[in-house]
Amino acid sequence: MSTTTDGRSARWEAHRQERRKTLVESAIRTIRTRGASVGMDDIAAEAGTSKTVFYRHFTDRHGLYQAVADRVDELILRDIGTVLGETAKGAGLSALDLDPRSVIRAAIDAYLQLVERDPELYRFIVSAPIVGAEKSGNAAQAVASATGKMAGQISDLISAALVDRGNDPAPARLWGHSLVGLVRAGADAWLAGLAGDLAREELTDQLTDLAWSGIKIAWRHSTHE
């Protein structure tokens, strides 16, 4: 392949990625204004294009949902970094040389910041109504995939702590996913008004206390020789 062809291909790929990013940001704005149950017709109309263009870039509704979920993951990791005063984006939580409880708290608070700041976007992620009508997948599978990235980050953090202290890292994956499930359940109850007028910071502290009481065992040294 010639240098000219390589350069043309690189420019086209860069253009394609930029176009995908623009469409995702437009979809997020539409979700915020129209609500979590917004359909593809409205998403395309707000972007000033057609559903065909969206499907060309994302294949189907599931593909668009996943792209939005990936962007939300980036926002959550950014917020974790903001809370910790560190750059979390592009690095696992286990790479942060900080008090582990503060990292857990930051992850919980970043999740709740999304709920507080973008309730409709949060509902879109945890309910995936747009995927419900898609033949290529179902909402439950899509949501599990979308929430898996943070669970994986937490699992890596716990696993690193267990190994460093001579403990079996086997529980790490289950604990990471369970922690995300705990926070999601608390966030859903809070969003539904079941926590009264509890402020986000108070909810963060309560969920951190509950989660840390169990997860802190990962930072204890093994008693085995």
What descriptors fit this protein?
single chain; 225 residues; mainly alpha; globular
Overall, the morphology is globular
What is the CA–CA distance across the termini? 60 Å
How confident overall, as mean pLDDT?
85
What's the β-strand tally? 0
Radius of gyration equals 20 Å
Structural class: mainly alpha
Question: What fraction of residues sit in β-strands?
Answer: under 5%
Low-confidence stretches: none
Level of helix content?
Answer: over 70%
Tell me the series of helices and strands, N- to C-terminal. HHHHHHHHHH
What's the story with the biggest beta sheet?
A: none
What's the helix count?
10
What would you say this structure looks like, in words?
- By secondary structure, the chain is an all-alpha fold.
- The chain has 10 helices and no strands.
- α5 (100-117) runs antiparallel to α10.
- The longest helix has 32 residues, at 3-34.
- It is globular.
- The model has no long low-confidence stretch (mean pLDDT 85).
